[in-house]
Amino acid sequence: xxxxxxxxxxxxxxxxxxxxxxxxxxxxxxxxxxxxxxxxxxxxxxxxxxxxxxxxxxxxxxxxxxxxxxxxxxxxxxxxxxxxxxxxxxxxxxxxxxxxxxxxxxxxxxxxxxxxxxxxxxxxxxxxxxxxxxxxxxxxxxxxxxxxxxxxxxxxxxxxxxxxxxxxxxxxxxxxxxxxxxxxxxxxxxxxxxxxxxxxxxxxxxxxxxxxxxxxxxxxxxxxxxxxxxxxxxxxxxxxxxxxxxxxxxxxxxxxxxxxxxxxxxxxxxxxxxxxxxxxxxxxxx
Length: 286
Prior knowledge:
Strand content: under 5%
């Protein structure tokens, strides 16, 4: 008999797996066909959205199981998975139709597709907000993991909000006759949206690695990695709103990036040291 928790989330896990598989297919398709990486008609869009959406579905399903049980958990997880699956599906559909998936209202059909995608991602954002509130009532777990879940969900919610900001600024650009993807001279509008989007995966992975290595003060280290995400997000916002590309770094952007890297390198060094110590101990007792 299959485990009950797995049977509850099985369709959700399947939806995430299909999106990841679709994303990898489109990235391989781009490589084999030598397609352009940039541009609204690049297979990069269904590729990255597929992998990102699938990972997010998996993380939401996992996050639900870390919270205190709620009677509508199954329905919530399936609604979130269905909304993300449908949104990425529409993006993929538009790619194979040979038309942009965003900021495209050239036909009535394209207009309704864009509106539908906005509604779906709005529903996902509401769901993430609700899951954030529930993360303050987690099941019993190590402190490092609880910090990772709360910080990861919080950064995911902020990233969703920045996605809507990207849409608003893109609309402003369209009204001015400019590209909806570039702000100012060279600011990449999608950069802040994706800068900390996957902290919900990286932070729990760091917490799990620290637990496996039995590193002391694991909660402090996870907080440092979360702070690194926050400073990198600040760097992305500063660069974009200042109309600068990712590599056109001024003093403020340089400080934000340096602090982010420093906060990340310190935990990496500690993890590396504990990894070497663990392997040395294993060889000495073999």
